[in-house]
Design goal:
This protein has two domains: 243 residues, Aspartate Aminotransferase, domain 2 (3-Layer(aba) Sandwich), CATH 3.40.640.10; 130 residues, Aspartate Aminotransferase, domain 1 (Alpha-Beta Complex). The protein is built from 13 helices and twelve strands. The strands form two sheets. The protein has a seven-stranded mixed beta sheet with strand order 1-7-6-5-4-2-3, with helices on both faces. It has a five-stranded mixed beta sheet with strand order 8-9-12-11-10. α1 runs antiparallel to α2, α2 packs parallel to α9 and α3 crosses α4. Bound molecules: pyridoxal-5'-phosphate. The site of pyridoxal-5'-phosphate (PLP) has 16 residues, from α3 and α4.
Length: 379
């Protein structure tokens, strides 16, 4: 297999056979001419079922995650919904990490629960607790987000895969924070990788999308059937934007990781800052696991303010180069207050996040400018 960056630029992306166009065209079409009834060219009949631009992205993502099949969707949550409703039936149970993305928790607890799919939060770092949680016969899925949002907990994917498979359950890894450049969960034993392509894969804060990549071809067939039957696909232009962004994923992630590493060290030494949550710091409670399964530590940092929630809100509001906004993974740096913003839907639940926590999505600007901005915001 060729290297990651070569695949990011070339996998599935042969020059267009009709014109030689080096860049895959945006196939803005809903339907395809048939050469006689049922005489499809390349299998295309209707763009919910298949579209060449989306197919190109799906092939590229499958290659980057080293899976057999990739599928892309209108959003990360659309991908998650399609996955969960493909593999779960009323009476089934999802076991999920104690600090999954707020929207994932909302989907499972508010949308799927009324349809009879229950959930059990578990600390994925406590392997005995995971063993106990997967013991009931009705557990279909263990949902692992690593690094997690916003607490940057890291779970041992290979260790989880062993436990989860012994119970005949699927291990799903939300790989949004790491991106396939830093971590490839399928190679560590996961069954399904989930992405919000809105984040690092899109990388420029201009497109919402999601993806699933699987190792097993039969599961891929079932998911692809539901992708078409449920219809939550992404449009061709959205697919093309992600495809364009994939080509620079490696260089972007290298810079995100380098900038975040510098900033995490700097925050650690700041008198107003309490805990700094960044898997690249040797002090991080899961640093060893992160170093074992990731090839870099990414661009996300969370930190706590010793003076509490008001201080956290003030930092978010005073920052200038760090834009106060939800989302993450773009080239520009963002700052936010998870308790009141991205994770407000987890308030009052076991997944509630501390109110003195600030989350940074560190972009690829010059790191000295980013440090100067944090310095004035914290002073
Ligand atoms: C944003 C996000 C999602 C949801 O994706 P959308 O594209 O917003 O639907 C899922 N998981 C993680 C870790 C995320 O950051």
């Amino acid at each position: 297999m060729t290297g990651f960056n070569t695949r990011a630029i070339h996998a599935g992306q042969e020059p267009d056979p009709a014109t030689g166009a080096v860049i895959p065209p945006v196939h803005l079409t809903t339907t395809y001419k048939q050469d006689g009834v049922g005489g499809l060219r390349g299998g295309y009949e209707y763009s919910r079922s298949a579209n060449p631009t989306r197919d190109t992205l799906q092939t590229a993502l499958a290659s980057l995650e080293q899976g057999t099949r990739g599928m892309t969707f209108a959003s990360g949550l659309a991908a998650e919904d399609t996955l969960l409703r493909t593999v779960c039936r009323p009476g089934d149970q999802v076991v999920l990490g104690g600090d999954a993305y707020g929207g994932t928790y909302r989907l499972i607890s508010r949308v799927l629960e009324p349809w009879g799919v229950t959930h059990t939060p578990v600390d994925l770092n406590d392997l005995d607790a995971v063993r106990a949680a997967v013991a009931p016969e009705n557990v279909r899925v263990v949902w692992c987000e690593t690094p997690s949002n916003p607490l940057l907990n890291v779970s041992d994917i290979a260790a989880l895969a062993e436990i989860v498979h012994a119970s005949g359950t699927l291990l799903v890894v939300d790989n949004t924070f790491a991106s396939p450049y830093l971590q490839q969960p399928l190679t560590l034993g996961a069954d399904v990788v989930v992405h919000s392509t809105t984040k690092y894969l899109g990388g420029h804060s201009d497109v919402v999308g999601g993806a699933l990549v699987v190792a097993d071809a039969e599961l891929g067939e079932r998911l692809a059937y539901h992708q078409n039957a449920m219809g939550a696909v992404n449009g061709p232009f959205d697919a093309w934007l992600v495809l364009r962004s994939l080509k620079t994923l490696g260089v972007r992630m290298d810079r995100h990781s380098a900038n975040a590493g510098r900033i995490a060290e700097w925050l650690l030494a700041h008198p107003a800052v309490g805990d700094v949550l960044y898997p690249g710091l040797p002090q991080h409670r899961n640093h060893d696991i992160a170093a074992k399964q990731m090839s870099g530590f990414g661009g996300m940092i969370s930190f706590r303010l010793k003076a509490g929630e008001e201080a956290a809100l003030r930092v978010c509001e005073r920052a200038q180069l760090f834009t106060l906004a939800e989302s993450l993974g773009g080239v520009e740096s963002l700052i936010e207050h998870p308790h009141r913003m991205t994770h407000a839907s987890a308030a009052g639940s076991p997944l509630e996040v501390p109110a003195d926590l600030v989350r940074l999505s560190v972009g690829i600007e010059d790191v000295d400018d980013l440090l100067a901005d944090l310095d004035q915001a914290l002073s």
